[in-house]
Amino acid sequence: MQNWLQLSMPPKDISTNGHLIDSLWNYTTMLCIFYFVLVCIGLFGFSYLYSRKRNKTPYYTYGNKKQHLLFTAIIGAAVFLTIDLNITRISNNDLLEQFWKWPNPATEKVLRVEVMGQQWMWSFRYAGPDNEFNTKDDVITNNDLRVPVNTKVLFHLTAKDVIHSFFVPNVRLKVDTIPGRITRVWWEVKEPGEYDIACAEMCGTHHYLMKARLTVYSEEDFNRWLATSEQLAMNTNDPDDTNLAWGWKWEN
Amino acid sequence: MKRLDLQSNLAMTVTITGFSMFFATLMMGYAIYRSSSTFWPPMGFSKVSLTIPSISTFLILLSSWFCYQIKGNVKAHDFKKARLNLNLTLVLGFSFMVAQSFFWSELKASGLYVDSGIFASILYAYTWIHAAHVLAGILSLVYLSIMLKPSDDRMLIKAVNVEKFWHFLGAVWLMMFLTLFVY
Amino acid sequence: MSGGFNEIHPEPTTFISKYIISFDHKVIAKQFLWYGILFLGIGGIMALLIRWTLAYPGVPFPILGPLLFPDSAGVVPPDTYAMLFTMHGTIMIFYAITPILIGAFGNYCIPLMIGARDMAFPMLNMLSFWFAAASALVVLISLCTPLGSAAGGWTSYPTLSTMIGSPGSGQTLWCLAIFLLGISSTMGAVNYVTTVITLRAPGMGYFDMPLTVWGLWLTAILNAIFVPVLGAGVMLLMMDRVMGTTFFLAGASATAGTGDPVLFQHVFWIFGHPEVYILILPAWGIVSDLLSFFSRKPAFGAKATALSMTAVSILSTLVYGHHMFTTQMSPLLTQSFMTLTMTISIPSAIFFANWLGTIWKGSIRFDSPMLFSLGVVFVFGLGGLTGLHLGTVTTDLYLHDTYFVVGHFHYTMAASVLLGGYAGIYFWFPKMFGRMMNETLAKIHFWGTMIPLNGIFFGMLMVGYGGMHRRIYNPFVYESLQRLIPINMMITWSAILMGAFQIIFVWNFLMSLKKGPKASNNPWEVGTLEWTIPSPPVHHNYDVIPVVKCGPHEFGNPNLKNGRDFQYQTEELVRG
User: Residue-wise pLDDT tens for chain C (576 aa)?
Assistant: First the structure.
């Protein structure tokens, strides 16, 4: 069982803010366990103490005495104050200070990537040397996302056909990609390596095969890869190939 | 027989609540399409002519007025007048349907089909759905007309319930007219 | 205003008018019960097929596999897998839980427990069943169409559920079936609401109603308000599929002017979140009553429980957005939905306190309905608490669409409702059929359900936290998920075990129907109105409409001197 608990731990957190989600999860779980233990003590304890055999005469009460009402009210208030208020507050703070604090490409160093989901493939687009999207020097990869370590990466996502969901378990983030809309997500990864990207929203028969590879490079490895790919893109991207023209003008 | 009347009345109110939620959902959809698009009607479309929808509105509102009379007539045991008002309601309701069908052929003539984008989809689908309910309303008016006889001591509640439903259809149309066409 | 239902309808004489086109609420309840149990079986087999695929991808399903999937040598193919989980959800929610909890118990209990001779509108009631039957027929037909039935998940989000993602008639028939079922549910709801308001026996105020009736009544109100919302949604979806409208199409797939796929999600969850409570409220009501009945003491804070249930019903209409955090609604909406969602835990905590308060210092009889009710308290505790992780936006970013969600809603909607439904069946079986069920088998059934059930759904919480997402045919194409194979195998074997124990229930049910010992009028020694009349009741229920003089939970009154420890609701409350 110990082993199973270890197995069911989420994959390694590689992002700079994923630990916020993990710690909130732990906090919520601890409190849930606390209250669930209370329920179990009541459930099993009362079942044992007050079975027909042990307790012949039940206590005749409607539970509407003052102390009963107070007790119920305290339970309600305790749950609200200890769990609800706290996790709402923590979650709100995390959202405002991290997850919704969108990096600004104009003022800081941010890698911008456009993502498109389609049945059943992820496509990624880097702006290329001209820093403009949807031009012929864009680097386009399929099911293969490469990002540098210790750099903020800002994604704008959409979908071509049906709704997909861009899910990277190792950074604890997930965002739906929706036809006709652009959704956003950003992260900063702190550990090089190879990780899974999945589609989390049912998108048809081969939904389970819609996975991509996330490669996190060191800064210089990434620059080397990007330079080679840009060169390759300039030489081989066919401007008349409509399949490559799925990008859009980046708007912050 | 007071209790049975109360039951029917209550049941009709609950039913109309359900129908209202149905139409409210449609209108919420419209509000979202409308508010999320920069232009309305969308590029390449123009507003539809108000002539026929205005006539439809006039017809259904007038029919509601005649429908409103029936209850009083039944109460006063004036069944001749009740039948007259009922028939007028029916005729007007029927003419509303005719006006709607003219509206659809006009849309078609102007090159708008149900599959030509969201603007046309809304115009057709919402008026169709409403018309289907009007058809049900007309059927209930016909039912009332068959049932209309002085010997029935539950006549009044039947008239009241059919009237409620008919007013509801008129109100829905008025809302659609104001939001889909005028605004 | 309560007046009691006074007419006595003539008893039907022919087979058809008695058992098929019946206007009698008791017969319609039984029709719904059989209908629900049938679909529970179908949905259960689908669940086993799904579980088998997840634990043993590429291995033929034993016994049934080669018969069902001869083309793939008994292995569930990926497209069929998608259809299976879609139809498992649809069938369990709309064709198993709804008919059993709302159709069967609603029809059976409401008139009997409030002292009425029938529903307010017996004919509407009959139509409600036959609309449901027509809907079931359409669903069964859809399973036989060439491309199979709907396969876009039970939520059927566009654009996957439009022609772009789901060609073939399966999804269209699904929409039609749901629409028909919506009509049936609304008819039932109109009937229940009216019946409870107008037909309560003289003397029965709202707080004298058993909590079961409270639960069913609130369910009916939510049904009447929110099922039409889904009706509008599937109507537009059907138009998108059949007539070429573009309500839910956007992006490359919409040619002129664009619709909005997310709108469907809003519409679906405006209905869908109350629907969760529509399904669970009857079970809450039944459990609140049974805990009191078998603890032999009054329900603790019955009024607070009823009001909490009402509060939850109202709140349930305001929180639906927590199903859509990952679609990136506006930050303001997201935060409001999170905060509103959290407030649901206050009324929930209150009725949990009341449930435990009810068994506190009781004199508990562990008959099978009581065991199942205690089971509901346990599993709903787990289900409700795991909801906190999902109602919080940041943790939901990770957990959304993983098996954690599946585990959570199965604990709340499947486990609690299933156990609550069994509690109800074991409890009212004597009244319905005039015979007792075998208690030993019932207890074996309880433990055989309760233990594997936690294996299944707790296992799902675990693999979900481990990162396994939903609705995937073969999770192990992801190397990082391969470590979860042993837990998945445990879940699957728990499911098989639980399925096997349900055979005991079916056996017990069928045998008791024929051979069970005759039940007395009041085998459980309970004071609500339905136990004052013979088991099974006569066609018109009450020869004389009862007059209610006390509440439904009068147990253990020390002033009682007549040898009973309970009072019928028709008796004046004994005071010291």
Answer: 344 455 677 788 888 888 889 999 999 999 999 999 999 999 999 999 999 999 999 899 998 889 989 888 899 999 999 999 999 999 999 999 999 999 999 999 999 999 999 999 999 999 999 999 999 999 999 999 988 899 999 999 998 999 888 888 999 999 999 999 999 999 999 999 999 999 999 999 999 999 999 999 999 999 999 999 999 999 999 999 999 898 998 865 555 457 889 999 999 999 999 999 999 999 999 999 999 999 999 999 999 999 999 999 999 999 999 999 999 999 999 999 999 999 999 999 998 999 999 999 999 999 999 999 999 999 999 999 999 999 999 999 999 999 999 999 999 999 999 999 999 999 999 999 999 999 999 999 999 999 999 999 999 999 999 999 999 999 999 988 999 999 999 999 999 999 999 999 999 999 999 999 999 999 999 999 999 999 999 999 999 999 999 999 999 999 988 888 999 999 999 887
Q: How many distinct structural domains can be found in chain C?
A: 1
Q: Let me know if residue C549 belongs to a domain.
A: no
Name which of B5, B179, B160 is nearest B69 in CA terms: B160
pTM value surpassing 0.80: yes
Contacting subunits of C (3+ beta carbon pairs below 8 A): A, B
Using alpha carbons, list the distances in angstroms from residue C2 to A139, B173, C13, C193: 75, 37, 31, 13
User: Does the beta-carbon distance from C361 to A24 stay under 8 Å?
Assistant: no
- Cα dihedral C541→C545→C550→C554 (10° resolution): -20
Q: Please report, in angstroms and rounded to a whole number, the separation of the first and last CA atoms in chain B.
A: 47
Name the helix (H) or strand (E) containing C456. helix C439-465
Q: Which domain holds residue C515?
A: 15-532
Contact between B25 and C232 using a beta-carbon 8 Å cutoff: yes
Given a contact cutoff of 8 angstroms between Cβ atoms, the answer to whether C439 and A170 are in contact is no
Hey, how many other C-beta atoms are within 10 angstroms of the C-beta on C16?
9
Task: Say whether residue C202 is in contact with chain B using an 8 A CB cutoff.
Answer: no
We report the CATH number of the domain holding residue C109 as: 1.20.210.10
| CATH for the stretch A110-244 | 2.60.40.420
Strands of A119-219, DSSP E: 121-126, 139-142, 144-148, 152-159, 164-168, 173-177, 183-188, 193-199, 211-217
Q: Report the alpha-carbon distance of residue A180 to residue A135 in Å, rounded.
A: 20
Could you tell me if residue C385 is inside a domain?
yes
What's the distance, Cα to Cα, between the start and end of chain A in Å? 48
Q: How far is CA C509 from the centre of its chain?
A: 20
Chain A residues lying within 8 Å of C78, measured CB to CB = 205-206, 208
Chain C residues whose beta carbon lies within 8 Å of the beta carbon of residue B10: 193-194, 197-198
A102 contacts chain C (CB < 8 A)? no
CA distance C387 to chain B (A): 27
Burial class (CB in 10 A: 0-12, 13-18, 19+), C38: middle
Beta bridge partners of A159: A117, A179
At C568, list the tokens.
């019928």
Q: How far is CA C17 from the centre of its chain?
A: 29
Q: Does C537 fall in a domain? A: no
Torsion angle, CA of C110/C112/C116/C118, rounded to 10 degrees? 80
CATH for the B2-182 domain, from 3.30.2000.10, 1.10.10.10, 2.40.30.20, 1.20.120.80 = 1.20.120.80
- Looking at this predicted complex, what is its ipTM? 0.95
Return the bridge partners of A211, or none: A198
Determine, for residues A204 and C299 on separate chains, whether the beta-carbon distance falls below 8 Å. no
Contacts of A22 (CB under 8 A, 6+ apart): A10, A13, A172
Nearest-CB residue to C363 (from A25, A50, A207): A50
